[in-house]
Specification:
CATH topology of the largest domain: FAD/NAD(P)-binding domain
Number of strands: 28
CATH architecture of the largest domain: 3-Layer(bba) Sandwich
Strand content: 25-35%
Radius of gyration: 24 Å
Organism: Pseudomonas umsongensis
CATH class of the largest domain: Alpha Beta
Shape: globular
CATH superfamily of the largest domain: FAD/NAD(P)-binding domain
Structural class: alpha+beta
Helix content: 25-40%
Protein name: 2-polyprenyl-6-methoxyphenol hydroxylase-like FAD-dependent oxidoreductase
Amino acid sequence: MNRSDVLIIGAGPTGLVLALWLSKLGIGVRIIDKTSTPGTTSRALAVQARTLELYRQLDLSDAVVQNGHKVCAANFWVKGEPVAHLPLSAIGEGLTPYAFLEIYPQDEHEQLLIERLETFGITVERNTELQSFEETGDGITATLRLPDGQQQTCQACYLAGCDGARSIVRKSLDTDFPGGTYQQIFYVADVQARGPTFNGELHVDLDEADFLAIFPLSSEGRARLIGTVRDERAERAETLQFADVSRRAIENLKVQIDQVNWFSTYRVHHRVADHFRTGRAFLLGDAAHVHSPAGGQGMNTGIGDAINLAWKLAAVLSGSATAKLLDSYETERIAFAQRLVATTDRVFNFVTADGPIADVMRMRVAPFLIPKMISFEAVREFLFRTVSQTTLNYRGMPLSEGVTGHIHGGDRLPWAHDDEGDNFESLKYLTWQVHVYGETSDEMIAWCSAHHLPLQVFDWRPVFETVGLARNGFYLLRPDTYVAIADYSADPKVIERYFRDHGIRPYIT
């Protein structure tokens, strides 16, 4: 128990996903959390399409979809009436197998991850707290406070800080966390209720500068109300009650409250750590970046951090790559986090802007423009790709090379499907692999076979051209299914050179 490959601090979704992926890849992990039990209330609700795509690698996607709730449309309300309807299922159709917004509360989500982790023989160590750590020549030495109050010294090759916005790992590394705090107080209410907004869809009220939305849950008549307050009520956040904020939901969204299951308030920050890595210690999730809940991006971004880091740590620890591969974690993830914080900040500030001009924009201009904008397919696709995180890419970064068709190195492989099947089946496996659409050379076939690199050759079909894939070229895919190389040739020396330059040896899990 005192030695592990990776010591994970924090058992929220980010830490649990990291532990799961590493365990699947044969890496020894230890995961601790200072809380006594998993959370029973949660703010994070949305599981985006890109997360569901990646969850196929551990057979998690079906469980999330079956136990959660598909939201197929969003509605915008002004003066007690719906003024715009956005069909979510239609705008993502053909882009992903998960063309919807999945609502799966974080507490239920965590329980699923904990149960899956236990199948690998890993249990979260509760009431266990990191007190300090230092890097030694070949690893990390950490001091833990155990449930009985005693101290324990343990060793690990690497340490992962998944311990939230108040991260002790980040503070111990003396890493700056620049940004700010929104003036609004956020609240979440889990309610049993009735009314026209309890139809299984998402509803957003645009009437006031304070944000208010109703997120449906899987149980009939149950939903989460998420909103903000900024007036004198924000000065007494600790004593704020649901009665202080319920009137607007009752009147503007015509909600009939039957029961309030729980209610909580919190403040939200918008910050990105200066570094996501210092030596053998890494920051992930809220320990590395926090932002407004606009678009339901936070938990999904932390999960993306975990999957990005997991395969790289596994490659280094198994001897399949040199330690320089780990440099790419910060490069790839910090760029996305910075863009995300800037984007969600702009969206949230627009939705919550105060004053007469802002009121006109929100209550008159937006309801008029939204239906007009979503009538254009390009706008619908852009909105879905952005929110679903399927547009996230690592173009121009050290592990990304080439352009073939419309696909660049660093892109998510596009989903191509027709009556003959799709091209995502092999992406369930956590391994490097090559995709060819059309024909390839005997040399490529022989080289991939000799190096135990899976090669998927698809007979050319029109759907491949439709999604931007090139005929007879090849795409080298990373274990996290992003494109490493996009190349028009059928020359395996391109792959051989890539692995050599990056200190990587392909492996089978």
